[in-house]
């Protein structure tokens, strides 16, 4: 009998605890500021990208939108985000110092943390620069088969320009350092796009 009572008490306690945690999590979500984006992105992956030469022939891009992103603000300028990008490496493009014989596929998925410097401003500003770092996954069908899929360590800079009622323009540049293939497999990932800042569902002031 005592065993049954203890078991029942444990089940009730777990239900109450889970319900409380669910309510707390739901409340945090309602108080969170989210930013969603659609972007055009450029991949520079010719094996000489860190010579920083302006050469549009080395750009791999597709029509807008070819990248989607989502970001959730935490506290004191920090945020967590994710983004997914797709493009095509055209035939004759130079990738990792090798000319491709046919069109190939590029896909990347990344998770990052950002620090927004607008938190330092005394008054709200349309100018929202940030630093970011994180990790990701990249698939490139045009490279050596042993390096087609690889993880990446990412570091970058960017800026949002808040123009009108939550809508803004986003500029971002990220260096991605691959875990396979050596330095020639590292690449640059630039993007420009539209972003929208969604106010907290709770109606409270946005988290910064």
List keywords for this structure.
208 residues, mainly beta, Porin, 8-stranded antiparallel barrel, two-stranded antiparallel ribbon, 50% strand
Break the fold down into its secondary structure elements and pairings.
Elements: H1 2-30, E1 34-44, E2 59-60, E3 67-73, E4 78-89, E5 94-95, E6 98-99, E7 104-116, E8 127-140, E9 149-164, E10 167-178, E11 187-198
Antiparallel strand pairs: 1-2, 1-3, 1-11, 3-4, 4-7, 5-6, 7-8, 8-9, 9-10, 10-11
Describe this structure in words.
The protein is mainly beta and 208 residues long. The chain has one domain: Porin (Beta Barrel). 14% of the residues lie in helices and 50% in strands. It has one helix and eleven strands. It has one helix spanning 2-30, and strands at 34-44, 59-60, 67-73, 78-89, 94-95, 98-99, 104-116, 127-140, 149-164, 167-178, 187-198. The strands form two sheets. Strands 1-3-4-7-8-9-10-11 form an eight-stranded antiparallel barrel. Strands 5-6 form a two-stranded antiparallel ribbon. The longest helix has 29 residues, at 2-30. The protein is elongated and about 50 Å long. The termini are far apart. Residues 11-23 have low confidence and may be disordered.
């Amino acid at each position: 009998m005592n065993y049954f009572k203890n078991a029942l008490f444990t089940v009730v306690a777990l239900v109450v605890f889970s319900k409380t945690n669910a309510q707390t999590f739901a409340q945090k979500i309602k108080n969170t500021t989210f930013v969603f984006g659609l972007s055009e992105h450029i991949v520079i992956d010719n094996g000489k990208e860190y010579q920083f030469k302006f050469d549009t022939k080395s750009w791999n891009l597709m029509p807008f939108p070819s990248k989607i992103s989502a970001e959730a603000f935490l506290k004191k300028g920090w945020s967590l985000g994710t983004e997914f990008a797709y493009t095509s490496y055209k035939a004759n493009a130079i990738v990792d110092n090798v000319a491709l014989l046919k069109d190939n596929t590029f896909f990347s998925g990344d998770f990052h943390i950002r620090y927004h410097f607008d938190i330092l401003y005394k008054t709200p500003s349309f100018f929202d620069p940030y630093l970011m770092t994180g990790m990701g996954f990249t698939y490139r069908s045009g490279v050596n088969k042993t390096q087609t899929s690889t993880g990446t360590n990412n570091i970058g800079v960017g800026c949002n320009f808040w123009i009108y009622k939550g809508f803004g323009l986003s500029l971002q540049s990220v260096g991605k350092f691959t875990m396979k293939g050596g330095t020639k497999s590292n690449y640059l990932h630039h993007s420009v796009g539209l972003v929208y800042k969604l106010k907290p569902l709770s109606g409270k002031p946005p988290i910064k």
